[in-house]
Design a protein that fits this description.
Elements lengths: L1 E5 L3 E9 L3 E9 L6 H14 L3 E6 L3 E6 L3 H31 L12
Antiparallel strand pairs: 1-2, 1-5, 2-3, 3-4
Helix pairs in contact: 1-2
Length: 114
Amino acid sequence: MKIVETVKKTYLAADVEETDATTKLKGAVVVDTEEADEVVARNYVRGTLLGKVVNVTLKNANVESVQDADEVGPLVELMMKYLPLAEKNAKANSVLAELDALMGGKNTSDDDES
């Protein structure tokens, strides 16, 4: 993963290809590098889930720097690794709540006073 700073925005990109005139960012999302690394990683994963990760082509004149995302990259990889499990758990929790509502009962596991 790379952090690419331009005149106006900062991107976190999965890959960067540089040519003589342009820089192509693959799988990029706009981030705020003033945030903590965990927040930047979450924003990238959130962007992935919401379909906001895109390919961007920039003119080299607009690119101020390209650097490795040494701290953020491994966090993104870890979050993406556990994403299927998180989705499965979220689906299970929402289905259980809906099932409970359809049955007309309330969740008694939290209110058990026996």
